Amino acid sequence: MLLTRLARVSQEVAATSARSRKIALLAELFRDAEADDVPLVIPYLAGRLPQGRLGIGWKVLSRPVTPAAEPTLTVREVDARLTGLGKVSGTGSQAERARLVGELMGAATADEQRFLFGLITGEVRQGALDAVAVEGLAAATETPPADVRRAVMLAGSLQPVARALLADGPTALDRFRLTVGRPVLPMLAHTASSVAEAVAKLGACAAEEKLDGIRVQVHRDGDTVRIYTRTLDDITDRLPELTSAALELRGDRFILDGEVIAFDAAGRPRSFQEIAGRVGSRVDVATAAEQVPVSPVFFDALSVGDRDLLDLPFTERHTELARLVPEPMRVRRTLVSGPDDVRAAEDFLAETLKRGHEGVVVKALDAAYSAGRRGASWLKVKPVHTLDLVVLAVEWGHGRRTGKLSNLHLGARTADGSFAMLGKTFKGMTDAMLGWQTERLQRLAVEDDGWVVTVRPELVVEIAYDGLQRSTRYPAGVTLRFARVVRYREDKGPEEADTIETLLAAHPEVRP
DNA sequence: TTCCGACAGTGGGGTCGCAAT
DNA sequence: ATTGCGACCCCACTATCGGAA
């Protein structure tokens, strides 16, 4: 199949907003693909590369290359060239990679160049990624979408499922079973604004500590242990303590879900930054492990022995977990019978925060373990802080925000009356706010370099954030974690904005 | 008819590792 | 040694479609 066909369909998919139409367009293309093209066509139109990461980014791809006049590239040729690209490594490799990218782009028409750019940077912007491609695949093969989604969860990605389904038909899905040693997509939590809201939605539930570390899925089969991240990367070699911990447990065959965290000398949880640095260290693991030893805290069991627990209610999975994992390695929790029992959950949240953790996750007791779309049966609740800050500058948006001023630069007052930048945010704005701020901020503009518009520091905005973290980038030595806009405060002048001093005083545990 | 779950999009900061300077 | 870039950790929120209630 020619690449130009994919590029054209991708444009058509992007042009329609109806999900049903997107699915129909994808299904039609999948049906037309030859057997050998299928393993490429499906991930390409799901916005993914079968090779995974290539080491090529926005910078290299942005160099202009004269496009080809006629479309000649086939999907298989593109795949072969990208595979070659991924294999280039060593000294001088960056120049060689750039040369190969230039060759590929030079063989592509302008439309194809646009498609390849989106594919490699992961920004296809056609309004259809994995989930819609799964629906398209289900339609093309006349298989129930729920069955395809479940197989994708068990396989960890779309490609193997697509290949099996198109080669052998719907019965091939039976091959995708939970297997120790093969990671599955983890179940994720939604957000609730309060414990009361979460309990009202879920009924009988458990409130568990929410730990601010790195999610891990631990597989043990006899003496073999493998550890996977949320995106299913294998990080076994970076966390030797976890292998030891898994080998100490009584069972010799299981899959557990948990979080890796670390404690300081006083027994308080260390910051996310410290844990992420430790888990990210690959070169000298021994030294990193000495400086920041980590501990696992497990909260779910996906399989034990030869039993697949995924479809069991949480209560039963937890019974299995408790049988296998002793107390300190198991997450602290409390049971809540229902809305009349909210106080128990609220007290538990207060205790958890006092112990230095992030918040709680409220989990329905009757829910199965599912990465699919079986509703939000895990709800996280975290405290939210707010500040009044001053807009110092704003960046022009991309994609659907093209032509709108989007990403705000936020400043707090300093002792001398000037403003210190604390970070940026593009979150929390409605389309109406986006339109309003585009007009309002242009009136305050003192400079526009085509990317950043610098403004007079006069407009006050209320910002919500999850906490403070250390920063080497910003002048105060700190930055906001997960900042988002709540509302504009036109009733306030910049002289009423919050100061760096009050911010630091509110977070004594963080020192710049 | 209204409500709500699922999805995609729009990017945020930090850290590590590697190649180039 | 320092800098720039890419990969991967953590993530919030809004708009929209389409099925459920």
TrEMBL record:
This is Probable DNA ligase. One of its GO terms (biological process) is DNA replication. Keywords: ATP-binding, Cell cycle, Cell division, DNA damage, DNA recombination, DNA repair, DNA replication, Ligase, Magnesium, Metal-binding, Nucleotide-binding. CDD domains: Adenylation_DNA_ligase_Arch_LigB, OBF_DNA_ligase_Arch_LigB. Its cofactor is Mg(2+). InterPro entries: ATP-dep_DNA_ligase, DNA_ligae_ATP-dep_bac/arc, DNA_ligase_ATP-dep, DNA_ligase_ATP-dep_C, DNA_ligase_ATP-dep_cent, DNA_ligase_ATP-dep_CS, DNA_ligase_ATP-dep_N, DNA_ligase_N_sf. Its EC number is 6.5.1.1. The lineage of its organism: Bacteria, Bacillati, Actinomycetota, Actinomycetes, Kitasatosporales. The active site is at K210. It catalyses: ATP + (deoxyribonucleotide)n-3'-hydroxyl + 5'-phospho-(deoxyribonucleotide)m = (deoxyribonucleotide)n+m + AMP + diphosphate. ATP binds at E208, R215, R230, E259, F299, R374, K380. SUPFAM superfamilies: ATP-dependent DNA ligase DNA-binding domain, DNA ligase/mRNA capping enzyme, catalytic domain, Nucleic acid-binding proteins. Residues 287-414 form the ATP-dependent DNA ligase family profile domain. Belongs to the ATP-dependent DNA ligase family. It is an enzyme of class 6 (ligase). Transmembrane segments: none annotated. It comes from the Bacteria. Pfam families: DNA_ligase_A_C (PF04679), DNA_ligase_A_M (PF01068), DNA_ligase_A_N (PF04675). It comes from Streptomyces dysideae. GO terms for molecular function: ATP binding; DNA binding; DNA ligase (ATP) activity; metal ion binding. The keyword Thylakoid does not apply. HAMAP family: DNA_ligase. DNA ligase that seals nicks in double-stranded DNA during DNA replication, DNA recombination and DNA repair. The keyword Nucleotide-binding applies.
